[in-house]
Amino acid sequence: MKLLRKRVTLLSQDEMYLGMFDLPRGIFMLSMMLVHASFCFFPVWEYPNSPQLIKKIYLAVFSYFFDGSIPLLFLICGYGWRKRSMKKAVKAQCSELLKPYVFVALAIMVMTVLYCLIGEADLPAYLRRYLLPYALAWETILPSSMENIGPVWCLVTYSFSSILLNAILQEDSEWIRGLVLALLVSAALLLRDYVLPFCIVQTMVCTVYMYIGWKMKKTGFLTKDVPVYLCLVLFLFPFAASYNQFALFSTQLWPRGGITLFSSLVSGIVLLFVFLKMNRFSGRITEGIRWLGRNAMPVACTHTIFFIWFPLIVPIYAESFSQKIVFFLLLSAFYIVTACGTVFLITKLKKLAKKNQAISTKG
Fold first, then answer.
1. 148 and 134 in contact (C-beta within 8 Å)?
2. Short-list 98, 207, 108, CA closest to 153
3. What is the pLDDT of residues 175-211, one digit of tens each?
4. For the whole model, what pTM was predicted?
5. Is 145 helix (H, G, I), strand (E, B) or coil?
6. Closest CA to 132 of 201, 191, 197
7. pLDDT digits (tens, 9 = 90+) for 16-45
8. Where are the alpha helices (DSSP H) in 120-199?
């Protein structure tokens, strides 16, 4: 009992430094690409020959990380958020986030046209399949004739969540802020079964997560001392709350409603501390993951393009479990190499262009 009452420091002051979230962001991006690759062949609990125990263990571990990934991302976003005027907030989101989204949408449209022209496919049908979802930023359960917008839904959600959070922070009263946040969660749960544009439902929930991240910074939560028993409860709670279920934020799937949203938040907080503790590790692998975290937005945009189009251009079929494993590893490597390689190449070209411009200016 004394051990459970003992207090531990979550993070020391030495562990708080600029860039400490690069590794957690990088792990999120890496796991996102792995999960997207797995969607083509798994989840394993639906595989008919898998033992029941393996299904349950896999689902428990998968749901813990999967449920906590989106709250983890928006906690980090909220932690670094700064209040500004509404005009500056709207302008910043339009220039920094909505522009990359428009670029991805245009790239998807161009690839659609080329695919139809080369393959002699039905161009109007394919344009309807992608144009309307991207025009309205739909990322939910759509008719089979339409495609979701892919991972860039996070950009749309972050953009609108940032603006909404900035509006909430204009109000100094804590109880009014709390009331607004509670109304956002309630509205999201009521509207989760509807197909709404511009990721409205996801924005309502993720604004709350961003506010909690912002509050964690203001209160110094990351460096507080907490009892061991509280850490244990927080670690185990998501396993019980998400038993045999998992959340899917992109399609507004929260099986147990508010309980799922809360358990996902707890999972995100636990994962955040675990990943921050991993900053003590150094080496080529961790530095590569940190680079991925620093370039999260361009990597997400590039990955979206390959994620949407590669399975269509190169259909992959696997029947046996061993085939699924092999193809999963190959597709994971393809997603990681193409997304990271493209961003790395563009970054190098930009640096080279700036260097040449500087030389020509001096000349």
1. no
2. 98
3. 999 999 999 999 999 999 888 888 899 999 999 999 9
4. 0.89
5. coil
6. 197
7. 777 889 999 999 999 989 888 877 666 544
8. 123-136, 153-169, 174-191
